[in-house]
Specification:
This protein is α/β, with parallel strands linked by helices. The chain contains 18 helices and 23 strands. α1 crosses α9 and α12 packs across α18. The longest helix has 20 residues. The chain is globular and about 75 Å long. It binds glutamine.
């Protein structure tokens, strides 16, 4: 689209201020005004994608429908906007450099000396503009990862400078900073913001709007002061005060007039203020929920909730629509033993066993599955969690003691979970799993069918191992049914135990597609079963 507008969101003073949430909230407000908006994240690290990053390093890896392994902020974008993202929505320095070097090897640069400016910056600019030109977006919001002043971010800031120059009023910069509160003197301090804007100015970029994260209300005087020192309108100094849920941020940003000032700067019509009816209804359900539902989330990365971001959000969405608070108990799977399982999981209304890789913590996950199966507590296994459900049943119901996944024990004589055929010759780790959306045919009468209310669904995947169909008939005889199958390959995608109150394992990742306005049906069904669980407290 020739007149796509570009909004760049940079950050200063500290990391983790929530650029992703501010970007998603602004996008939501513009979308509510009828604009076609998308968000893109530029990550300044050298990994080609975050797929090879340990969740401890960078939180969850979010998978798009087209099979890209991306930054978890893309999850926020989808949850807020209800519009799928794609590979083009996440670009890393690793990918930029790889593409530049590939072009150099092909001879595309015709003998020129290849340099950060213009070759790397041109490649960054090309990636930024790709979304606008290919998909006809009215507005592309580009979030620049990292903090202004980082060596790694420099080529991105330089690209922003160039684009701002080239695009004129079709581009603008929002800079997010922190205004710390000094308890000792009882003051809010603006100096870090001033310095951070100076840093941007040194790189040739004048921000148009400042969003200030703060724990206390900013007085008009503080706003005026920041405006004066940073060359922005005082109306363009926006307060982002701490709130109890990220889903409140769009409403707060609307109150602050962020969307209006942005439209004004981009010379776009402002029109009527949207009501955000459904969004506010969700928020009021969330705030007014009196009862809570206790869910155990059993995983091995529990020290960092970002590792299970989408699962936690999907549980919150579902609980909210059932007018309950999600009380999510993150339980370290390594700490669960047959001796302490009652103490750890006994008073849970539902047990969710998380995805994961490698053998660490798997034994504890198997104990959790066994406990859920035997005590009739609603159980939801996702990816590795589903694979654990199969291994547990094979071992403890079928009596196949050595049943395992070849991921955990390469030499097992009973690989009930085995490496997928297509994975057998794969040696590279990056971007080589079974990724993205695949069809799944659902058996009528199953819990899954009851939840989805349709016989064909598409869900996102990220795995190398699968249910070994050689064991299917034995496992079905033992009481576990395959209720979801990939129609092309016959891969088992869903298993259930019909005699159980609610026991479902899914090979795919339903959590990636749960959004605020469209909670995921299987999460809805799981949480409802957990709420109805008579064993609840
Ligand atoms: N490690 C398992 C596999 O690769 C499960 C992956 C996951 O839980 N995302 O198949």
């Amino acid at each position: 689209m020739p007149d796509t507008r570009y909004i760049f969101v940079t950050g200063g003073v500290a990391s983790s201020l929530g650029k992703g949430i501010i970007s998603a909230s602004l996008a939501k407000l513009l979308q509510a005004r009828g604009y076609k908006v998308t968000i893109q994240k530029l990550d300044p690290y050298l990994n080609v994608d975050p797929g090879t990053l340990n969740p401890y390093e960078h939180g969850e890896c979010y998978v798009t429908e087209d099979g890209a392994e991306t930054d978890l902020d893309l999850g926020h974008y989808e949850r807020f906007l209800n519009v799928p993202t794609s590979q083009a929505n996440n670009v890393t320095t690793g990918r930029i450099y790889r593409d530049v070097i590939e072009k150099e090897r092909r001879g595309d640069y015709l003998g020129k000396t290849v340099q950060i400016i213009p070759h790397v910056t041109d490649e960054i600019k090309r990636n930024i503009k790709l979304l606008g030109s290919k998909k006809n977006f009215d507005v592309v919001i580009t979030e620049i990862g990292g903090t202004v002043g980082d060596i790694e971010s420099l080529p991105y800031i330089e690209s922003v400078r160039q684009l701002k120059w080239e695009l004129g009023s079709r581009a603008m910069v929002i800079h997010l900073t922190l205004v710390p509160y000094l308890a000792a003197s009882g003051e809010l301090k603006t100096k870090p913001t001033q310095h951070s804007v100076k840093q941007l100015l040194e790189n040739g970029v004048q921000p148009d709007v400042l969003v200030l994260r703060t724990e206390k209300e900013l007085s008009p005087d503080i706003r005026k002061k920041v405006a004066l020192f940073c060359n922005v309108d005082s109306r363009a100094v926006i307060q982002s005060i701490d709130v109890s849920t990220i889903y409140e941020v769009p409403v707060k940003m609307q109150e602050e007039g962020l969307d209006e000032i942005v439209l004004e700067k981009l010379s776009l019509p402002i029109n009527q203020k949207p009501e955000l009816k459904e969004w506010k209804l969700f928020l009021s359900k969330m705030k007014n929920a009196k009862k809570s539902v206790k869910i155990a989330l059993v995983g091995k990365y529990v020290e960092l909730t970002d590792s299970y971001k989408s699962i936690i959000e999907a549980l919150i969405h579902a609980a909210t629509y059932h007018e309950h608070k999600a009380e999510i108990n993150l339980i370290q799977s390594e700490s669960i033993t047959p001796e302490n399982v009652v103490e750890k999981l006994g008073n849970m209304q539902g047990i969710l066993v998380a995805p994961g890789f490698g053998h660490r913590g798997v034994e504890g996950k198997l104990v959790a599955v066994k406990f859920a199966r035997e005590t009739n507590i609603p159980f939801f296994g996702i990816c590795l969690g589903m694979q654990c459900a199969v291994i547990e049943l094979a071992r403890n119901v079928l009596g196949i003691e050595k049943a395992d996944s070849t991921e955990m024990d390469y030499t097992t004589p009973n690989p009930v979970i085995d490496l997928m055929e297509g994975q057998k010759n794969v040696t590279d780790k990056g971007g080589t799993m079974r990724l993205g959306v695949y069809d799944c045919k659902i058996k009528k009468g199953s819990l899954a069918h009851n939840a989805y209310k349709t016989e064909l669904v598409k869900e996102r995947h990220r795995h190398r191992y699968e249910f070994n169909n050689e064991y299917l008939s034995a496992i079905e005889k033992a009481g576990m049914t395959a209720t979801g199958i990939n129609p092309e390959t016959g891969l088992v995608e869903i298993v259930e135990i019909p005699s159980h109150r609610w026991f479902v394992g899914v090979q795919f990742h339903p959590e990636y597609s749960s959004t605020v306005l469209k909670p995921h049906p299987v999460f809805m069904s799981f949480v409802s079963a957990a709420i109805n669980n008579e064993q609840s407290n």
